[in-house]
Design goal:
The protein is an alpha/beta fold. It has 2 domains: 191 residues, Rossmann fold (3-Layer(aba) Sandwich), CATH 3.40.50; 189 residues, Glycogen Phosphorylase B (Rossmann fold). It is 45% helix and 15% strand. The strands form 2 sheets. Strands 3-2-1-4-5-6-7 form a 7-stranded parallel beta sheet, sandwiched between helices. The protein has a 6-stranded parallel beta sheet with strand order 10-9-8-11-12-13, sandwiched between helices. Helix 5 links the parallel strand 5 and strand 6. Helix 1 runs parallel beside helix 2, helix 9 packs across helix 14 and helix 12 packs across helix 15. The C terminus is likely disordered.
Length: 394
Amino acid sequence: MKIVFLHGISDLYGASRCLVRLAGALRADGHTVEVWLPDNGPLLPLLEAGGATCRRTPEIQPINRGVNRDLGSLARFLAGNLPAAVSLAKKIRAAHPDLVHTNQALLLSAGLAVRLSGAPHLLHIREWFGEFPGFWNFYQRYLALFSDRIICVSRAVADQFHPALRNKVQVVYDGFPFAEFEAVTPARIQAFRDAFGLGGGPAVGVVGRIKWKRKGQEIFLQAAAQLRTDFPEARFLCIGSPFPGNESHLEALRRFAAELGMGREWIITGDVADNLGAIAALDVLVHPPCQPEPFSGAVVEAMALGKPVIGTDLGGTPEQVIPDQTGLLVPPNDADALADAMRTLLRDAALRTAMGQRGRERYRECFSWDPFYRSILREYGVVRRHPAAALPAD
């Protein structure tokens, strides 16, 4: 089988890493895999190392905030979409794929192009559209019209669709290979702790893009400020960096930390080479978004590594974290509630261990690799057998 993936960003983030895993597994099974990207970036060598062929395809035009910068930008983007879709359709026809797998929803030209090409089309939605209800009211119909099957990474994402459109929608949780977690050695953990001077005290951290008023790092910072006196040996880590162009979010976080009087107990690591080693070095992972997150890979990685998780009770997180079993859920934008949850776990090492063990079991049951991969192959079969047909979700 030949699969062409359409992906709109060559940067490394959750959806990109999922694509690397899936493309590599498909190649290992003998399938032909091409990944089409609008530009070059750090994602390409990882894909190529797994055997995928990467193709620069500027007709893939991701929707981003710059599109809505002003009416002129929006008009130029929309005017260029149809020619881009026609050109992309010609390239798809020339490639003769058995199916096209679009790995993001925010690729306006993709759906139309695949439909014009005549290839079966599977769309993978990893985005949350609740901030833009007017746009989503139109866009969900566009996506459904030009897709044969739609995979959503959580029930929360699937529930965004109007009931009349859900006959094409299937929920498939992202899967993570156990071998990745087995490879995290004590030496990797100690290397991270040494690099950032964590000492022997507990470490609590947030992992992900830094984005003010969305990802919740400022709420985590406020909660940490409440705990520094009671837990002087604890370290509170912000692991990650802002998306290029959002550097002001990092500066705002640093200014806020200074206003709160945070010192060496507050650490911003930036991007780290060993993300799993960093998570394994934590005693508690905090996932504090203020707006719904579709599905957090960091939450699953923490559970697979035996770490308890504190998450906000919105989006896909309640589908991952079982309250009082694998971690704790708190309301969004509530630094006091988050501080209380962090205090509970920092005071009780036995509770942290028990929740971590149950989290590892939940990872194996719900978020491991083999069930995900089988589900994807099944969806490929459905799309190939019944192109352009609306099929009942299981």
